[in-house]
Structures are given as structure tokens and as C-alpha cells.
Amino acid sequence: MKFLNYFRGETFARGIHPPQHKETATMPIRRLPFAPRLIVHLSQQVGRPARPLVRVGQEVVRGQPIAAAEGFISVPHHAPASGVVEAIRLHPTANGPWGEAIVIRVHPGSTQEVLWEQPQYLPALDADELIEAVQDTGIVGLGGGVFPTHAKLKVPKEWPVDTLVVNGCECEPYLTSDHRIMVEQPADIIAGIGIVRQLLGGPRAIIGIEDNKPDAVEAIRARLPDDGSVSVEAVPTKYPQGAGEMLIKTLAGREVPPDSRSYQIGAYVQNVATLAYMGALMPKGRGFIERVITVVGTAVDRPGNYLVPIGTPLRFLLDYVGARDQSLEVVFGGPMMGQAVGSLDTPVTKGVSGILVFRGRDVAERAARKTYPCIKCGECVECCPMGLNPSTLGMLAAKRQYELMSERYFLGTCFECGSCSYVCPANIPLVQQFRVAKRILREKAAA
Amino acid sequence: MSTPLIEIRSAPHVKAPRTVEMIMRHVVWSLLPICAFYVVQYGISALASIVVVTATCLLTEKFFIRTGTQSGQLTDYSAAITGLLLALTLPPGFPLWMGAVAGLVAIVLGKAIFGGIGHNLFNPALVGRAFVQAAFPTSIATYTPSFLTGRFTEFIPSSVAWPLMIPADTVVWMQSKQLDALAGATPLAKWKFDGVMANAVELLTSLSGHMAVGPAPALVLLCGLYLALRRFMDWRIPVAILGSAALTAWLLYAVDSTRYPNPFFMLFSGGLILGAVYMATDMVTSPVTPRGMWVYGALIGLLTVVIRYYSGLPEGVMYAILLGNAASPLIERITQPLTFGRGAPGRSREGTPGYVSRTDADAAIPKKRFLRNKPKK
């Protein structure tokens, strides 16, 4: 009776149920050792790249700021390990173009101890100081959005926020990093919620967790504050439940109108991992230097949830987890929306919640599937969580009628969850075409 | 560690197992029991008709794929579906050469000239049938009774007519079987021209002897149910068609029960069930939007009854579906789904800021509505 969820008002309309593959859900978080060289990109966030604070040859200690935020929409970066700045040079990024990065040669004796911190008493800070404190940690949206968290927290005064939606859904298949954080660090999450509530004027907080993670629900429920300001809800397991708009719909019953921000309907969404790191780092005044990443996939011998220092090169990480094959597909993020990485020299950045490693032959099998013309089966229309018509959009995209796509068929509403491409029996690359179309439209608008 | 080859592909990196071939293959499988029962009813003539029509469709499709003028391939099973469906809509004693013409036209005019699978505007099987209905009006109206003795040993004489020759009249042949000419008329034709109405249960199962009917509606519904449950077919369209046809027929029956037949007769006679379950649900020619499917189905149901009652033809399903196909781009255009967040502001359940958590609501309002979120004991 799962399909009745929507009619009972428990979740959003449509969506898909891909196989979950949450094999690493029961594996505790383990530390990854330091790679001999760590590569900290200056641009790991939406907004302007950070400005380096160190010179080549300079000694840095673990936790020390090595790059400062450049303006408001930017974040500082910190040294993930003690060592020497070997170079500041161009390095591959997951997106393709090379970006400037600080390369740290790690001292062989570098310990896990964080040697640079500035403890602070958070309740004494006012809103601006608190936002500054968030920026100093260098935290970005860890769900994959990588928008600087402090900038998102600056909600305009005229929009009161009454509901803080905490996103613990982790609806992407394979990924379990948020799940493990919820199970192992519930106190940090509650502390993080406290900070955000302090900033937003004390809205009530609802933690939404998909009902395939009952242990996470229990772990957090045991730590809830007594005043009832924070509650936990098990929400139906369905992709893309973890999309902000969908979770607001599920938990608060409100739909974010197009071209609006969620605070305009009184809701504010924050990823559970982001909150956990805020709660863990901010009281101590530490920087964000490592994060939990799920490493899993058909090519991985030792999958698991690893605490990975930011800047760990992919080659070192894959070697450690035993991913070896003739050819590999390496994806940063989940299988539905993740980014395939083109070089093993790419380092882990702040926005990476999972690393999927598939064997080349598995990928080739999928890629060999024949593409048919659209047979108008309507599967995509029945799964699009935004209520779009991917079938028609796809046909228009093939004819390059991009303006029509955005004007009459609301292409701008698409948040590229990939459900349409996932279900399409004709194997039409729908969301891939939409990405291209949106990009072309953006460039046209900018020109 | 030697550097492995790196594959780069655009997200999503996973894919549902369902393919076009898989959908079409299941439709073919679901048609096989219907074909088998049809052969039991009418014997080797029906078998020959199914084989000839399907083979013609496949060969024609193969030709156009070889010449490169159409997309798809033979293994996508779509031409097989066209052939089987077309054969099931023709009378069992339909001359084989005319069946071959129907199959040829179905693929050429119904599919190939549009560019093959996914591009056709009209259901190919119905295009083929419409063509032979216009070209051979006598033969297509000549039905023979089912369950005749010796149906597995001899052909119906009209079946084996020489190509381009007028088929032999079946009346003489039926007289030799001690059946009057009326036995060869379909229940719809009997009602329309002679005012004789058949029993609904007999129509549903087609098991009563010597009735000139097509494939058994009960079996078609059963096979359709399988497809709908496996989601290889959209359930909305048949429900809409049958619902709207039944409603229209019932309204007219309520107005004048002597002039109009009862709604059961309307539903189970002629090709309405086969058309609703297999023809109208053809994915390519039906609207892609859920609301559009309802409109499309309702239109077909209404048109079917109207054509049956008020035109010179006894049967109207084919034209109703073809008209529905023609209207479906328009229907699709006016029934685009409601985009997220564009609904009326009042649509949201808890649109106001005073939101109460479902856990709290669970405590306040006992059970029922929030079953799933009860904390585990």
C-alpha cells in the first residue's frame, strides 16, 4: 500500500524507487590515514574562490586557516594535516576545468590532533557574529549543493521562518554517510540545530529521516531536547525525498513556488551533515577539515564510511579501499545526481558525500543499451517530482527549441534529479539534455 | 598501481531495467492466449489469418528498416503487436490475401511513412483495418459462426480465395452446415439491423456456440489486467473508455429502453473491449499526460456509442479510436501536468505558519491518518 502515501498526505507526488544498495549502512565510520600530499582547492564552494594565506615552503599545522574567504559568498579553507606547503598550482577538479589548489606535503608524523582552534561561547554571540563564526568554520552545504552555509543562513528579516526542516533523508542509493552521522553523532546534530534556531529566531525544527533508517530515527529521538522544539519524523522512502522542496512538501505540506526561496513560505532546509559539523566544530572554533564519505561500488574491495581529510587525492583513496580494475567509473556524490570524475589526481572536496566506483564493464553494459525514439509511455511524466512533462521537453530539446521549453514547459523548475532518465525505457538521455538546455538558456540570458 | 582507464558519463549513473523491447514483448505474450482461444473458436482459418497478417507486418517492417527509412528494429516486437492485433480485428474467414494487404498497409501507411516506432500518429493496426474496411466492405462484414464442426480440418471457403479474386460466398457453405444466414451476423449487426439482442454473459465469454464474435472479452480483460498490474499498459485509458461508454449507453438506455440496448450489451459486444484494452492504449498514439489519458479515453468511449447508435455502421470502435488518436496531440497540449508550486495556494494542507508536527498530531488525533509515523514500542 506504499502508493497510498501521497493520498494520505504523507509525502510528495510521484518520484521513483530505485534499488537502495545501502550495504554500508551498518559499517561504522572509520578514519582514512593521511595521504602523502593533500590538495586543497581554493574553490570548493559556490561563489568566489578563497584567497591563499600561506606561501610556498611555509609550515602549517592541522586546522590552521590556509585560505581566507574572498567576500561574503565564499568560505575560508583550513589545513587538513600538519605539513609544508609544497606548491600553489593548478590541479584537476571533478567538474573538469583545473583550479588553483594549495598542495600540502604532509609530515610523516602528523597526528590526528587538531592544533588550531578558538573556543567560543555561542549563546553570547549576536546574529552577525554567529554568521561570521559559521563562515570561519568554512562549512558549505554538505548535501552536494556546496553553497556557503553562512550565506544561506542570512535570511532577510521580512521573511520570518517558522519551520526548520532538517534533511536526513539521504535518498540517493548507495550513500550512507548521513545515516552513519545520525547514528553516531546525534548530539552534534542537536547542537547544530540549536545554533541555526538561535540565528533564525527559534523556529520549531523537524528532522525528516527516510523510514529505511529506523536506527537513525531512534538514535536522534533519544537525544531530543525536552522542550519539544525539535521533533523527528520518519518519512516514506522515495527518491528524491531528500530534495529540499520535496521534504518541505512532505513535512510542512507547503510547496515552494517557482522562482522563490523556501524561506518565503516560512521554511528553511538544512542538511543533517552540515548541522552535525556545525554543532561539532563551532563551539571549539575549528575549521572544516575532514568529512564522512561513503566509498562503495562494484569495484571497491573494502567499502565503508570513511572520515576523509579534505584534499585526499582520489588515487590514494581508491588504493586504500582496494578499487582496482582495467577501467573504472568514479562518481563524486550519489548515482542519480553525482558527477563522474575524469582524473584520479582529483582531490576530495567539501561537497563530496560519497564516492562510487563502478567497474568499466558494468558501465559499458549500461551504455550499450539502444536508444529508441520516445514511445510516449508516460513513465517520466509519472515520476517527475516537479510535475513537469519530460517527454515533451525531451522532444523539444532534440529540436533545440530551448525557449519554448522554458516558457511553456517550465524547464527552469527542473532541479535535475534524474528520475526521468532513470525510468525512460527508450533510454533517452532526458535530464542530460535538460542540463544542456538550461546552460544554453543561462548563457543566452547572460549575454 | 597502473592507472586504470577512467569512464566519464553524465548522471544518472544507474538505470531502471525496463526497456522498450521488454514492454512490447510482454504485450505480445499477453496477446498469445487471446490468439489461442481465437483459434479454438474458429479453427485453422483463424490460425492462417493470424500467421499471414503478422508475417506480412514483420516482412514489411523488415523491408523499411533495411532501407533505412524507419527507426527501430524487428526485435522491438512492435510490428508483431500490430500484426497480431490486426488479425484479431479481422473476421476469421477474411480472405488471406486481403489480410496481407491489410498488414502491408498497416505498416506502410500507419507506421513507415511517419518514420517508424514512436513517430506514428495513428495506431498502425487500425490504419490497416480502416483501409480494408473501405476497400473490401463485403468481406470485412462477413462473419462466420464460432465452434463449427470440422473447423480444424477445413478452411472457411472465403479464406482461401485467390489473390485479387472475389472470395466465395459463405452463405452456401453455411447452409451446408445447417445454419441460416443470420448466424453469420455479429451481435452488433443483429441488434442494429434486426433488433435481436444477445445475452451479456454469452458475449463476455464467447463460449456459446455458433455466435459470430471476435476474441473473448473476458480473456482480453484478463490479459489486460496482467499488463496493467505489471505496468506495461496504462490502466487509465481502458477504465476511461469503458466507463464513458457505459455511462453514455446507460444514460440513453434510461431515456428510452426500447430503442437503445442495455449498457452491458454495449460494453461486451463488438470490438470495444479489445479496442479499449489493446488498441487505444498504444503508447505512441495516446496522450502522455495522466489527465490527458482520462480525456482521451472518455472521448473514445463517447464516440464509440454515438457511432454505433447514430451512424450507418454497426461498429464504431475503430473510427472512435482513430479520431481519439487524431485528437491526442491537442488533448496533450491542454492537459499538461500541474507543475510543483504552481497549484492554487490553498491546495497545501498546512499552508499556514502554525504548523503542528505529525508526531504531535499523532498524539492529539488518535491513529488512522498517521499510521506510519507511530514510534515503535
Write the layout of secondary structure elements.
The complex is a heterodimer of chains A (447) and B (377).
Chain A: E1 29-31, E2 37-41, E3 51-52, E4 59-60, E5 65-68, E6 77-78, E7 83-92, E8 98-106, H1 127-137, H2 149-153, E9 163-168, H3 177-184, H4 186-200, E10 204-210, H5 214-221, E11 230-235, H6 244-252, E12 267-271, H7 272-281, E13 290-296, E14 304-309, H8 314-321, E15 327-332, E16 339-340, E17 354-359, H9 360-367, H10 379-383, H11 390-398, H12 402-408, H13 419-423, H14 430-446
Parallel strand pairs in A: 1-14, 9-10, 9-12, 10-11, 13-17
Antiparallel strand pairs in A: 2-8, 3-5, 4-7, 5-6, 7-8, 13-14, 15-16, 15-17
Helix pairs in contact in A: 3-5, 4-7, 11-14, 12-14
Chain B: E1 5-6, H1 20-42, H2 44-66, H3 78-89, H4 96-110, H5 124-135, H6 137-141, H7 170-176, H8 187-194, H9 200-205, H10 217-229, H11 236-255, H12 263-268, H13 272-279, H14 290-310, H15 317-334, H16 358-364
What do you see in this structure?
The complex is a heterodimer of chains A (447) and B (377). Chain A is an alpha/beta fold and 447 residues long. Chain A has three domains: 2-21 and 118-281, NADH-ubiquinone oxidoreductase 51kDa subunit (Rossmann fold, 3-Layer(aba) Sandwich); 32-117 and 287-363, Ubiquitin-like (UB roll); 379-446, no CATH class. Chain A is 28% helix and 20% strand. Chain A is built from 14 helices and 17 strands. In chain A, the strands form four sheets. A six-stranded mixed beta sheet of chain A has the order 1-14-13-17-15-16. In chain A, β5 and β6 form a beta hairpin. In chain A, α4 crosses α7 and α12 (402-408) packs across α14. The longest helix of chain A is centred in the C-terminal third of the chain and has 17 residues, at 430-446. Chain A is globular. Chain A starts with 28 loop residues before the first strand and ends with a helix. Chain B is mainly α and 377 residues long. Chain B has a domain at 19-142 and 144-184. Chain B is 54% helix and 1% strand. Chain B is built from 16 helices and one strand. Chain B has helices at 20-42, 44-66, 78-89, 96-110, 124-135, 137-141, 170-176, 187-194, 200-205, 217-229, 236-255, 263-268, 272-279, 290-310, 317-334, 358-364; one strand spanning 5-6. In chain B, α1 (20-42) packs parallel to α3 (78-89), α3 (78-89) packs across α4 and α5 (124-135) runs antiparallel to α15. Chains A and B meet through α5, β11, α6, β15 and β16 of A and β1, α1 and α16 of B. β15 of chain A pairs parallel with β1 of chain B, so a sheet runs across the interface.
